[in-house]
Amino acid sequence: MAGTFKFELVSPERILLSDEAEEAILPGAEGQFTVLVGHAPVVSTLLPGVIHVKLATASTKGIYIDGGFVEVNPQSVTVLAEHAFIVDEADQRQLEEALGKAETALGEAKDDEALRHLTCAIDQLKGLQRKKAA
Predict the structure, then answer these.
(1) CATH no. for residue 37?
(2) Is residue 56 within 8 Å of residue 93, measured between CB atoms?
(3) pLDDT at 62 over 50
(4) Which of 42, 60, 97, 107 is most solvent-facing, going by the fewest CB within 10 Å?
């Protein structure tokens, strides 16, 4: 299905990304899910991880979030996240800070599902650190 939808990622500090997108892959509470234009309406909790957005300009943005919420409707996707950063623009300090928060949350996790998701987020952050260091 061809077409685009409005993608917005909003944090308390600013609108991090507002653009036309063809596809978004999100770390939902029930597992990753992909949104295309015309998607059924959904409201979901998001877990820590990387959102992958394929923009209408054919570029792809990776955005790390430490959790949040998403509202999907056929014409738009709006992500609300307490802390987020664009992966390509991140520096080592941001990555270390996010990793520290994820590791702290892992130590406080109360169930297997939280452990699984936080472990995945930590793995993603460590991978991003290695990529930046290379």
Answers:
(1) 2.60.15.10
(2) no
(3) yes
(4) 107
- Cβ atoms 63, 85 nearer than 8 A: yes
Number of domains composing the chain: 2
Strands (E) located in 1-134:
5-10, 15-28, 31-36, 42-46, 49-55, 60-65, 68-73, 76-81, 84-86
Domain shared by 51 and 38, yes or no: yes
pLDDT tens track for 32-54: 899 999 999 999 999 888 999 99
Residues 112 and 81 in one domain: no
Q: CB burial class (10 A; 0-12, 13-18, 19+) of residue 7?
A: buried
30 confidence band (pLDDT: 50, 70, 90) = confident
- Give the span between the Cα atoms of 96 and 123, in whole angstroms: 13
**Domain containing 119: what range?**
91-133
